[in-house]
Amino acid sequence: MRSALRAAGKGLGHVSPNPLVGAALEHPAKSAAHRRFGGPHAERMLLDAIGSEAAGGTVHLTLEPCSHHGKTGPCADLLIEAGVRRVVVATLDPNPSVRGRGVARLRKAGIEVEIGPGAREALALNLPYFQRHLYERAWIELKEAITLDGRVADSGGRSRWITGPEARRIVHRDRARADALVIGAGTLRADDPELTGRDTPGSTTTRIVIDSRLRISPEARVWQAWHADSGGRRPGSEGRPIGRRDTPTVSGNFVRRSDGRWLRRPRLILATVRGVPGGRLERFRERGWEPWLLPARGGHVSLPALARRAAREGLHHLLVEAGPTLAQAWLEADLVDALTLYMAPKVLGGRFGWTGSFQSPLARAPHWESVALDRIGEEGCWRLRRPGVLDRMADDVHRIG
Ligand code: AOF
Ligand code: ZN
After folding, report:
1. Ligand 1 pocket, residues with Cβ under 6 angstroms
2. What is 2-125's CATH topology?
3. How far is the CA of 41 from the centre of ligand 2 (A)?
4. Considering the entire predicted model, what is its pTM?
5. DSSP states of 184-236 as a string?
């Protein structure tokens, strides 16, 4: 299972909204992975690589094999046809089109199936995917660059830069791995960021700007960068072929090229509330923004509604680069699944703390568990996630079988 888990990581940044999946044959030792969205699943990659050697052998999978006809045929059938004797599965697949049916299919064909080894590791690789299918909302990771005293800007509002170039390079890598980057109108108006992965041109991910009152400019730099990157795609063409038969098909977050490959399609989303003036909205629409008209909570976009909508749209992992107001709102909504803090050994004082005016009594303070604490030169990167989330998901996914 260890080599299957290691192999699974090879798809990082290329398979979402699909999960990272690895497969390994015990003897002779061979492993393979699902490497890109729309491409062959891990089982197919493995079986193609080993031919008839799988017959009578044991295969380890980090996820239950699929049982449905998606972009490829069911992997359970591939294993049955290959004559595999035993399959070890780390965890069931919570996708409603699988949910235990893959394992049932193997067992019905007389294959011995063991479930559980490596479950926590397999879950940890795919938290946003499991969150989406178990709880129907996106995984919210809040990212903050802070000083020792938790400040994100000096009293003049200057925030460039709290951390050094090396930390910012890692942030760009994090951005490329998320399904969407989220900022609020406050940050957009203060910093007017491009939100690109500058080291990896063309790797722009989808951006979501939260603006309940349409205060931002439809031609802010985030739009300019998106527009340049997406070649000014015509809005409203989702799900329909754009142009003739040999031109790409747009579907959700991907574009299918005529050679069958799926390319990521960066979207630019304006999350706002129902009832905003239609005329103002049109100025965004005509430039390619996709408005999401969400219910309001206290005059602001409902964040639970945003997290549900994102999950439904296949945006499972949201990286939120929040200023104090938006960070406070996510904390108050109790939706911060993961926290990534880049910390510079400086002290700024003043009023711009990353949590805004958030307050909690000590006894009920939200808290997270440490996943990694890395040193970046003189700075630090602390990665945290909601405590107990792995155990809860492991229980819940077990129950679906
Ligand atoms: C497997 N092995 O390596 C993966 C699986 O869009 P499709 O057709 O590729 O199907 C995606 C779904 O298939 C995904 O949501 C998940 O349920 C399963 N992923 N299954 O047997 C794999 N990547
Ligand atoms: Zn499959």
Report:
1. 18-19, 21, 34, 41-43, 63, 65-66, 70-72, 75, 93, 95, 98
2. Cytidine Deaminase; domain 2 (3.40.140)
3. 5
4. 0.92
5. EHHHHHHH------TTSTT---EEEEE-TT--S-TTSHHHHHHHHHHT-PPTT
